[in-house]
Design goal:
- The chain contains 14 helices and 16 strands.
- The chain is α/β, with parallel strands linked by helices.
- It folds into two domains: 250 residues, Aldehyde Dehydrogenase, Chain A, domain 1; 144 residues, Aldehyde Dehydrogenase, Chain A, domain 2 (3-Layer(aba) Sandwich), CATH 3.40.309.10.
- The protein has a seven-stranded parallel β-sheet with strand order 10-9-11-8-7-12-13, sandwiched between helices. It has a four-stranded parallel β-sheet with strand order 5-4-3-6, sandwiched between helices.
- The termini are far apart.
Length: 422
């Protein structure tokens, strides 16, 4: 890693190194990439004490800076979370190699044999906040998919990220791959982000993972394509034919398992047809679990502890123990509400009616839609990807959890026997 003091020079050096090693990674055999990832996971397990010491430093600085409880939860590591990070890296190692997959193949009447084959994107820049695990997840996924990675984590997780990055470098070197395959920007200077956004000569795709302000800045200023991970304004709709106990369990998990993750539910919608039987128990369960409820008139009527919902609440990703609650007119009303206020991230329906479930699945335009399951399953690991760089909420190239396959593009390979075009 370069120690240049000037940010422009630093970033140019990092970009030059990434571009130089990208062809090496694109051609790396599957076994070599797997070896590097297994070695990196082993290094993480061997370095738990050092990783936790670095994280303790980040946590202390974050608390002193006034980070919110949700932000501190995203930042915090313990032995169990470090083991989870290492296990995710190992799982990525065992996934099928996405590079070289034959996506389609056909022959033309003139005898040309044409195949569409998966290839790496090249150099991927990842800009993220708060989550040190993204350092390991993003590095592992880029390596598995044959891409060079430039990681720029938030200043609040710098020490944790440096510790995890060191383990990734150990894995690369153990497998005989260049250490520059996964580089971590070593400065907290915000000018480094601006430099990355303009590095069109070095970076092929930028992936932002963070709050609205970060993503908006990246989308506005980037001179390279952006694979956006937008806010998670996620909904749970409780249908007229929902089992109440299932709804209670799913809603509590979707909202409160971890309030700071992007898959946490922010709005609960209840079919007005079961307001008399379902609304009060669900609101009471949330309140008794320590969740603040902001509700419409019907929700306020069932419990004096419910505060009035504002128009802004329906559009808010709280990332905290707060939820907006309201009644809707059936599944059509729920879909209309989600279309107006959702962020195309993750939305769920609780129902015992298969036809209603299918109507919701077809009609909700989100990257992830679920039936009778918590929105907190919006996670690459839960999808079997081992890890994720983020949840893409756009419509081009990738959507939903971004795993190894989503970090590839394709090229056409055409084989002939001397054909010429008339």
């Amino acid at each position: 890693m370069t120690h240049a003091t000037d940010v422009t020079t630093l970033m140019a050096d990092i970009g030059t190194a990434a571009r130089a090693v990208a062809p090496v990674l694109a051609a790396a055999p599957s076994a070599q990439k797997e070896q590097a990832l297994h070695a990196a996971a082993g290094a993480m397990r061997a370095s738990v004490a050092q990783i936790l010491a670095a994280n303790a430093r980040d946590m202390a600085e974050g608390a002193a800076q006034g980070l919110t409880p949700a932000s501190l939860d995203r930042l915090r590591l313990d032995a169990t979370r470090v083991e989870g990070i290492a296990a995710a890296v190992e799982l990525v190692a065992t996934l099928p190699d996405p590079v070289g997959r034959e996506l389609a193949r056909w022959q033309r009447p003139n005898g040309l044999d044409i195949a569409r084959v998966a290839v790496p994107l090249g150099v991927i820049g990842i800009i993220y906040e708060s989550r040190p695990n993204v350092t390991a997840d993003a590095g592992a996924l880029c390596l598995k998919s044959g891409n060079a990675a430039i990681l720029r984590g938030g200043s609040e997780c710098l020490h944790s990220s440096l510790a995890l990055h060191g383990c990734l470098v150990q894995g690369l070197e153990a497998a005989g791959l260049p250490a520059q395959a996964i580089q971590l920007v070593p400065t907290t200077d915000r000018a480094a982000v601006g430099a990355m956004l303009g590095m069109s000569d070095f970076i092929d795709v930028i992936v932002p993972r963070g709050g609205k302000s970060l993503v908006a800045r990246v989308q506005a200023d980037a001179r390279v394509p952006v694979l956006a991970h937008l806010d998670g304004n996620c909904h749970v709709y409780v249908d007229a034919e929902a089992d109440l106990e299932m709804a209670r369990s799913v809603v509590l998990n979707a909202k409160l398992r971890r309030t700071g993750v992007c898959g946490a539910a922010e709005t609960l919608l209840v079919d007005q047809a079961v307001a008399h039987s379902h609304l009060a128990p669900l609101v009471k369960a949330l309140l008794e679990a320590g969740c603040a409820v902001r509700g419409d008139a019907a929700a306020q009527a069932v419990d004096a502890r419910v505060s009035p919902v504002t128009p802004e609440d329906w559009d808010t990703e709280y990332q905290d123990a707060v939820i907006a609650v309201g009644l809707v007119e059936g599944v059509e009303g729920a879909m209309n509400h989600i279309a107006r206020h959702g962020s195309h991230h993750t939305d769920a329906i609780i129902t015992g009616n298969a036809a209603t479930a299918e109507r919701f699945l077809a009609g909700v335009d989100s990257a992830i839609v679920l039936v009778n399951a918590s929105t907190q399953f919006a996670d690459g690991g839960e999808f079997g990807f081992g890890a994720e760089i983020g949840i893409a909420t756009g419509r081009l190239h990738a959507r939903g959890p971004v795993g190894p396959e989503q970090l590839t593009t394709f090229k056409y390979v055409v084989r002939g026997v001397g054909q010429t075009r008339p």
